[in-house]
Amino acid sequence: MPDVERKPKITASRKLLLKSLMLAKAKECWEQEHEAREAEKSRYLAERIPALQTRGLSLSALQDLCRDLHAKVEVVDEERYDIEAMSGMEGRKKMFDAAKSPTSQ
């Protein structure tokens, strides 16, 4: 068979056009997903967290509210730290076990 130059099925300019159209569509979809996520986040927070009412509170009531909020934040931070520490310990333990195993040598 003689060597016949095959023509590409799609021209370079057409290929570039299709690529740019696909990127534009992907960007549009990503922006819609981002907006939907933000709307869901704000809806969830509005549902779960009531609005903070500080109007009309006395100074001592505001201080008590601040103490309560700080205590709650501290509890959450401790839990987060414990979880991070435990996950870090598991990772270090796995690395130590892998280094100690005879199959790794």
UniProtKB/TrEMBL annotation:
> Cell cycle among the record's keywords?
no
Task: Please provide the Gene Ontology terms (biological process) for this protein.
Answer: cardiac muscle contraction; skeletal muscle contraction
User: Per its UniProt record, what InterPro entries does this chain match?
Assistant: Troponin (IPR001978), Troponin_I (IPR050875), Troponin_sf (IPR038077)
Q: Which Pfam families match?
A: Troponin
Superkingdom of the source species: Eukaryota
Q: Which UniProt keywords apply?
A: Actin-binding, Muscle protein
What SUPFAM superfamilies does the database record attribute to this sequence? Troponin coil-coiled subunits (SSF90250)
Q: Name one GO molecular function term.
A: actin binding
Q: Got a GO cellular component term for this one?
A: troponin complex
Q: What does this protein do?
A: Troponin I is the inhibitory subunit of troponin, the thin filament regulatory complex which confers calcium-sensitivity to striated muscle actomyosin ATPase activity.
Similarity field: Belongs to the troponin I family.
Question: What protein is this chain from?
Answer: Troponin I1, slow skeletal type
Q: What is the lineage of its organism?
A: Eukaryota, Metazoa, Chordata, Craniata, Vertebrata
Instruction: Identify the gene encoding this protein.
Output: TNNI1
